[in-house]
């Protein structure tokens, strides 16, 4: 056998075969796994440098999820026919893989580590994202890189009220929940969710169902590690010398406590600056050439202070109670020309768009409450600007975006608010004493163990994103986080947002385009468009509107002036509706003959007003009553066997304006006129 170290392992995941193999591809990497799930195939590799990177105070891990067009049997559409840069979906998937694996690496490791998941084949029923996450876990676990895995990930859906693991393409189309859960053998390591107002209990049960399935895959991967896993390499720890660490801490800790004890971020930063200067002045000689270590030690000193205050004294740096939310404020209509604007302020955080992950989370939180296209056929663009950042900008963005949508008159189903929950653990980690707190600010996020972001309506959850610095969470911590964020979410809605604007406005901004919809018989689409687009172009020009027609007969008419939009709607209705005997029409005289006038009652539709029916009195000459281009109101009095339309201005004047006839006319049906007296759609 050519590949002597080639190994294959198989198991089942959600009723489909999962295969992991190694020893054939990417042989120079620290480890590689080809993960196959159904017909989805992802090559996962992990590579680490032999030595630590100099001058960094973090673990330099990069995670890349690479999508290839050939995986779905397509050719790139670029000029060079090459793959483009990573799209938003690929970036978000990279983050979902990164978040659960990162805390499992040693905190003092500074060797560069590169994780790459390359999607080579896609089965629509078998998620390549989940396949990649499992393959990456297996690759790191069997490698020689120090790591406390393995982990596993699954998708969880809610289809017809039933929890489904790794839903198929058909099931994903009708699921009320899109949830990704990553787990170690014992703990929930990552949660990412979007849902249609899912209640806390259902969401918790879905998370636990995913966790139980993950345990089976973790056990499967651990068996592979036991068989072929490499010994973990020794590395140079980046931790500072304990003696110097204690010396610096003793020198500055009391001053650090005083500096941190304020609710104003600017005051805090200003107070810390002279402390940093003093520490550098005293200890720089001890760290000559490596002064960055002092910054690391100062970080650890502040971390020690903040965590001790929270864990031991239940004291927060800004003086709030553990479950107390920072001062809040909501305003709308700050911008004159934007169709809707809102400002949501939480402490020193004002909402904004920071990065792709936060933007995607805010979008995920809001999409479930947006109206359908039939109800509100507008393209919606929400821009959230960061005006100040001190924790939870993504959740502030959700609140601010809700305010602006309501102010703009978007008929959302319910207002959405977001809040975060933090965690501090003791020496025994999540299994020992722990405490949680709501509405974490920057320092608590920076030095804490968890940022559990939950957004939703009063009815239920629409989005979750959980970031951890510990290995995972117990069910008890997840339940407590749900309870606290639910209470805080309702407070924000009831006390801050709804008093500012209680419901979406009934009218759109005067600067917003007005959108009207109607449905016509698909067979009439050609009549509305006209030969070469002539009819639809004329309507758009005459009424200053834009018209879009779907294949199913739905027509969207938009413009700034509501009256013009309504006029265009009536014209489209006229074109798409066959004339009815007894109906009245506002038409335009198009031709004059000696026996009467032809009047266009809709683009491409005209009828004859006989000279005897032009007025309530005898008419000697057609031009005495109407001329080409005149607007007239007429009544349809007959449609003959050949579809030709006979109109009467006389009847319209009598019935609509109450005029009295001054002469009698012959009511005997007239002989059919020649075809050339009628203009159809094709006549020029």
What is the straight-line distance between the termini?
A: 80 Å
Q: Which strand order does the major sheet show?
A: 8-7-9-10-16-15-13-14
* Low-confidence parts: 675-684
Query: Strand fraction band?
Result: 25-35%
Quick check: average pLDDT? 92
Q: Biggest β-sheet, characterized?
A: 8 strands, antiparallel
How many DSSP E strands?
A: 24
Indicate the percent of residues in helices.
25-40%
Shape: elongated
Radius of gyration: 35 Å
The total count of helices amounts to 15
Structural class: alpha+beta
Q: How is the topology of this model organized?
A:
Elements (H helix, E strand, L loop, with lengths): L6 E7 L2 E7 L8 E7 L2 E13 L8 E7 L20 H14 L9 E11 L6 H15 L9 E8 L2 E4 L3 H4 L4 E7 L4 E11 L1 H29 L13 H19 L4 H19 L8 H22 L14 E5 L9 E5 L9 H11 L26 H15 L9 E10 L2 E10 L3 H6 L2 E7 L4 E8 L6 H26 L13 E6 L5 H5 L4 H10 L2 E4 L4 E6 L2 H15 L7 E10 L2 E7 L2 E6 L20 E9 L5 E4 H9 L27
Overview of the molecule:
- The protein is α+β, with helices and mostly antiparallel strands and 684 residues long.
- Helix content is 32%, strand content 26%.
- The chain has 15 helices and 24 strands.
- It has helices spanning 88-101, 128-142, 169-172, 200-228, 242-260, 265-283, 292-313, 356-366, 393-407, 442-447, 475-500, 525-529, 534-543, 562-576, 649-657; strands spanning 7-13, 16-22, 31-37, 40-52, 61-67, 111-121, 152-159, 162-165, 177-183, 188-198, 328-332, 342-346, 417-426, 429-438, 450-456, 461-468, 514-519, 546-549, 554-559, 584-593, 596-602, 605-610, 631-639, 645-648.
- A hairpin with a 5-residue loop joins strand 23 and strand 24 (645-648).
- The model is unreliable at 675-684 (pLDDT under 50).
